[in-house]
Design goal:
Layout: H1 5-15, E1 19-21, E2 24-25, H2 34-52, H3 54-57, E3 58-60, E4 67-69, H4 78-93, H5 103-115, H6 127-141, E5 145-148, E6 171-175, E7 179-190, E8 197-200, E9 214-219, E10 225-229, H7 245-248, E11 252-263, E12 267-270, H8 273-282, H9 285-314, H10 321-346, E13 349-350, E14 356-357, H11 360-385, H12 395-398, H13 403-409, H14 417-431, H15 434-444, H16 450-460, H17 464-476
Parallel strand pairs: 1-10, 5-8
Antiparallel strand pairs: 1-2, 3-4, 6-7, 7-11, 8-9, 9-12, 10-11, 13-14
Helix pairs in contact: 1-2, 4-9, 5-6, 5-9, 9-10, 9-11, 9-14, 10-11, 11-14, 11-16, 14-15
Length: about 475
């Protein structure tokens, strides 16, 4: 059943996950560590909101009749998709769309996999039952997941095959009566170490050996599982100095499997090339994740529009033609995303598993468009803010004898200096800080290599009827 924010944080603290940062293992509660305190509180808000507004954020479990999170619901009608869209966006509004891996993201993927459970059925194996059980357990206990499906970036050439005796990419090193033993590493687990479980999917590259073909979900505190974190972008806990990073820094980690035992009942794909190759398309995993992602991207773009207009009004630059032109770019991006999302719902269809699946074409267009336009959107904020994004006093300076100078020289058109600096520090944190730069990089590569995304859109898009249009015209002339 749906859990509260306090229950979620307590559960993560009690897992005692093996998390490393700055070369040291974190001891004690993760929720007390500066690198995770803010994001855990922000996630707790989501869980509390789900309990306080059950009609919007929960549905009745078909098994227990408990109130469970909306992200686990299998959509059967367009109304179900619309409800999912609204709930996703209301959750995203609490974090301005900056939590790219809010719990509903991977939960949606778990739901899609379970919705196509028969795909994983294999003779003498219970893989189809396993993914169903993983889904049911996650739904009934309101579990959160990180996920990983990227191999370490050692050699990205097309022909490269990892044959090193020194294991790099995580692989099955042996089978036992109890399960498979995994050794090696995977990238790039966002929020790795601060979720209940880890979903591990087939990695990219050439599936030349069975030992690399697997999919499973295990608890984050499984023995031998380590999360090695990058540097934290929470440089201090001041919400004045770092208004976004202090709240929404998600953290990314390397997932190390040091001879990790994965029980057989946690495995739902193993040694099956065709299923590994088609898992994302045949289960509609990608399409459902894109539906969640584009819903969130719209909220993030709304935030960018509001932030940009606030800057315009703060320093009174609305009458400049180039400013109006730049603001129109943001508005256009927002309306394009909204239209693509609504189109995906309007053209949704039931698949052969009786799931209502959004039209993938507009969603694929959106994920091809946003990585290109997002850097431009934050670039517009930089251009609007100008030098105001450089000279930004911090909290300590406002609480010093210098305050009178700052109040006089840094005020806005209709705002005090402190109000103006608070606004501009939000803008700086979004587009110029380490946190903001990571946000831009995250959106650039959100669903993979942008060039491959474009190639996939071209290759998969149905173009025949448009060719027929041309052919019919040419035969008439």
């Amino acid at each position: 059943m749906a859990v509260s924010g306090e229950q979620y944080i307590s559960r993560i603290d009690h897992l005692n996950n093996d998390v490393w940062i700055n070369g040291k293992k974190i001891e004690g509660k993760l929720s007390n560590h500066p690198a995770f305190q803010g994001v855990l509180k922000s996630k707790a808000v989501l869980y509390d909101l789900a309990i306080s507004k059950k009609d919007m954020f929960t549905f009745k479990s078909p098994f227990t009749k408990n109130d469970v999170n909306f992200s686990f619901q299998k959509p059967e009608t367009k109304e179900d998709l619309e409800k999912r869209m609204v709930a996703t966006q209301e959750w995203a509004k609490t974090n301005l769309g900056l939590l790219g891996r809010s719990p509903d993201y991977v939960n949606t993927g778990i739901m899609a996999l379970a919705g196509s459970s028969l795909l994983f059925k294999k003779k003498n194996k219970m893989y189809d039952a396993n993914i169903t059980n993983i889904y049911n357990r996650a739904m009934e206990n309101d579990l959160s997941f990180t996920h990983t499906f990227i191999n370490p970036q050692v050699n990205r050439s097309i022909s490269y095959i990892d044959t090193s005796d020194n294991i790099i990419a995580a692989k099955v090193v042996r089978e036992t009566h109890d399960g498979i033993i995994i050794k090696g590493a995977r990238l790039l687990a966002t929020q790795g170490g601060i979720t209940d479980e880890v979903l591990v999917l087939p990695g990219g590259g050439n599936y030349v050996e069975d030992c690399y073909i697997y999919a499973f979900a295990i608890p984050s505190n499984t023995p031998g599982l380590k999360f090695i974190c990058r540097e934290s972008f929470v440089y201090n806990d001041s919400e004045f100095d770092y208004p976004l990073a202090s709240r929404f820094e998600e953290m990314d980690s390397i997932v190390v499997f040091d001879n990790v035992l994965v029980p057989w009942d946690r495995v739902f794909l193993y040694k099956h090339f065709d299923k590994a190759f088609n898992i994302f398309s045949e289960t509609q995993f990608n399409t459902m994740l894109l539906f969640q992602a584009v819903s969130r991207m719209i909220i993030k773009t709304e935030f960018i529009l509001g932030l940009s207009e606030s800057i315009v009004q703060c320093i009174n630059i609305s009458e400049f033609q180039h400013v109006k032109d730049k603001m129109s770019e943001i508005i256009t991006a927002l309306e394009i995303l909204r239209s693509l999302l609504l189109s995906s719902v309007h053209h949704a269809k039931l698949n052969d598993k009786n799931l209502m699946i959004p039209d993938s074409n507009p969603l694929n267009a959106a994920i091809n468009y946003y990585p290109k336009i997002y850097p431009r959107l934050v670039g517009i904020i930089q251009l609007l803010g100008g030098s105001g994004l450089i000279l930004l006093p911090n909290d300590k300076q406002f609480n010093s004898p210098l305050r009178s100078y700052l109040n006089n020289y840094l005020q806005g058109t209709n705002s005090t200096a402190e109000e103006k600096i608070k606004l501009f520090r939000i803008a700086w944190d979004l587009c110029m800080s380490a946190f903001g730069t990571r946000q831009t990089h995250f959106e650039r590569f959100f669903f993979g290599d942008p060039v491959r995304i474009g190639m996939g859109l071209y290759s998969g898009y149905p173009k025949e009827r448009y060719i027929d249009m041309v052919n019919k015209f040419t035969t008439k002339t």
